[in-house]
Amino acid sequence: MTSAAQPDPEPQTRMTGAAIVLKALQDQGVEVVFGYPGGAVLPIYDELFKTNAVRHILVRHEQGAVHAAEGYARSTGKVGVVLVTSGPGATNAVTGLTDALMDSIPVVCLTGQVPTHLIGNDAFQEADTTGITRPCTKHNYLVKSVDNLADIMHEAFHVAARGRPGPVVIDLPKDVLFADGPYRAPSAPRRTSYRPRTTPDQAAVEQAVDLIASAERPVFYGGGGLVNSGPEASRLLTEFVRMTGYPTTLTLMGLGAFPASDRRFLGMLGMHGTYEANLAMYNCDVMINIGARFDDRVTGRISDFSPHSRKIHVDIDPSSINKNVPVDVPVIGDAATVLARMIETWKRKGCQPKQDALARWWGQIDSWRARDCLAYSQDGAVIKPQHAIRRLFEKIRGRDFYITTEVGQHQMWAAQYFEFEEPNRWMTSGGLGTMGYGLPAALGVQVAHPDALVIDVAGEASFLMNIQELSTLCQYGLPVKAFIVNNQWMGMVRQWQELIHGGRYSESYTASLPDFVKLAESFGGVGLIARTADDLEGVIDEMLAVDRFVLADIRVSKEENCFPMIPSGAAHNEMLLGQDDRAEHETSDDGMVLV
Amino acid sequence: MGQQEDAREQRRTIAVLVDNEPGVLARVIGLFSGRGYNIESLTVSEVDPVARFSRITIVTSGTSMVIEQIKAQLARLVPVHEVQDLSTEGPHIERELALIKVANRGEARIEALRIADMFRARAIDSTLESFVFELTGNPGKIDAFIGLMEAIGTIEVCRGGVVAISRGSIISMVTAEGDEEDDPAPAGRVLVS
């Protein structure tokens, strides 16, 4: 950073709108902005040029900027910052913003806007950005006067990070960026509304702890709220689980919040979760949900979701309570704060787990575990995708690595076969399921952690969706590894067509794929290809050894499906464990309409 | 297990105190349309020009689970200060203003005036073949009046939407100014005159 150490300006220091933006970013501790210039934001870019106050990473598409900011945010716990121009700059950012909203990722996105006197005139590169982004942001602002700019900038960071995090857009008309206005340093928020509750109601905590202590077949079910709360939440969850000895499962968003190597970890739950995790959810008598939201990928058929359990739901967002699944003990608060209170209450009351019942419960769980639902057999030369991903994990096990993914089968296999010991190491598009997420997200992670091993576990179809970001990797020398599990199909689409559309593979095959090796080289990186199981080992080794960005094209068997699977509209106890199970299973009419 | 959901549809009147800033109404309406909630009536106006607060009154319907969702979703909007479920938090009064034009002749005109008198509607405009009546009351009363007028003439109706407030001396929607973080909603303040 080259910014000079200056004393904070007085509250009434005046400067241009663009300078206020930059000053506010600095005062908010922002080190990196992911962006793409254009007419409406030129004053900010000019200010960046003059002050060199914040590092700017020039992406190649605004969607990439938001995903990169998400990757940055998720791997650091800080707010990710995006800077794009008006019109197409803003509309291109919409997918990223929606992704950040669905996964509760703190992002502040600055969008340019035509000057205030032209708003509503269908001016060049005008779009109603606040109108378009209202449903896909946590909050947004149109700054009509430079007098409010500093306060809005600071408030945006407060809103993005506080409570349940999310994306915030600040729309900046160009005349406001040129105008002179007052700069005020960050202070307590001026707005008196929006005070999310983080400290739980003690009575609810007591009730929850009593229920936890009374359990005979308990299960902890943790989600992304643990990660968003910060590493302390994961530490406390681990402490509480080890104190009670209760089995624990995590959602796709929560992976890493509890160490996968701990034997109390049942693996991920949900549509492609493990047999033991889903059956534990189905058969439990007390469910302790911490920071998860009963997403439809997790619950399966709602009417048969964990029918015999009493449910505790810890969430920072009151609107998550009773949204999908009615719960018995809601606890509103921050995951770490609630867990600390729970542990304290558990100790103070001298609670003890019911050891006999718990031993029987573990016996049952171990019998489910013995099914070894993630088993696969790699025989012959053709690489099984599961094998490719598992081998990648085995070769980096013990190192500090960051994994991003695209969306589809490879994403689920990565979730199944990687083992995460810590939070903030796993970045995947959970709620929105955004193909093209992984490469720009990996870019953002690598910017935040320049020396770390960052791998985008990709499918070839998703990878093509934001492939332009390879140029960004090259420009900044970011040694991201793209591990492309290439089956030449949109694998998950193909799988659904096979399972519920009679094998009519409509438009899910990608003909004319690029030569990924040459493609990597043309972007200034290294391309590798593995065609056989023997190649695989060497390719992974080489990929890890290269200090530039790498595209590893891993040619895998084309027809492999992702199991276990809870088919749409089915319940946790109706899992398909493999190809042989599916003959007996007809998808219900209700299930057919689900996504 | 969990709490059993009450699957019956209920009509609820909800008051929302918001910052009067651009886009706030769009945010509220977008929330209802985006999440598929019903709006039977919605009114909004600034109620505190100094603090720049507006009060929105929404009449909606849904199962108890949906109503709880609506309230929680409203409460988490950034410019929202307070959400009050008037239908469940003690007794409340609802009023609506309606302007009803009736075009008719002869005996039916006399009948229209007679009915208007019973409903305490005021004729605020008249020609030899029409009246405009101004009527306030709860929405049911206005429905009834419109039903009767429809039977005796051709009508045009404009309704203002429901406004509602709690009964009694409690000032329940006070501003949150100066509250500490994490405080629950401010307690009601009793007005001492």
Q: Mind sketching the topology for me?
A:
The complex is a heterodimer of chains A (595) and B (193).
Chain A (H helix, E strand, L loop, with lengths): L12 E4 H11 L4 E4 L6 H10 L3 E4 L3 H15 L3 E5 L3 H15 L4 E7 L15 H5 L5 E4 L6 H13 L5 E7 H5 L1 E4 L18 H13 L3 E5 L1 H6 L1 H14 L3 E3 L14 E4 L6 H9 L2 E5 L5 H4 L10 E6 L13 E4 L2 H14 L6 H15 L15 H12 L4 E5 L3 H9 L8 E2 L10 H11 L4 E7 H4 L5 H8 L4 E6 L4 H10 L15 H7 L3 E5 L2 H13 L4 E6 L33 H4 L3
Parallel strand pairs in A: 2-3, 2-4, 4-5, 5-7, 6-7, 9-10, 9-12, 10-11, 12-13, 13-14, 15-16, 15-17, 17-18, 18-20, 19-20
Antiparallel strand pairs in A: 1-8
Chain B lengths: L9 E10 L4 H11 L6 E8 L4 E10 L1 H12 L4 E6 L6 E12 L3 H12 L3 E6 L2 E8 L1 H13 L2 E13 L3 E2 L17 E2 L3
Antiparallel strand pairs in B: 1-3, 1-4, 2-3, 5-7, 5-8, 6-7, 9-10
Oligomer: heterodimer
Count of individual helical segments of chain A: 23
Order of helices and strands of chain B: EHEEHEEHEEHEEE
Kindly report the average pLDDT value of chain B: 89
Indicate the overall shape of chain B: elongated
CA(first)-CA(last) distance of chain B: 50 Å
The strand order across the widest sheet of chain A is 3-2-4-5-7-6
Gyration radius of chain A, in Å? 25 Å
Percent strand of chain A: 15-25%
Largest beta-sheet characterization of chain B = 4 strands, antiparallel
Task: Give the helix tally of chain B.
Answer: 4
Instruction: Count all strands of chain A and give the number.
Output: 20
Largest sheet of chain A: 6 strands, parallel
What is the CA-atom radius of gyration of chain B, in angstroms?
Answer: 20 Å
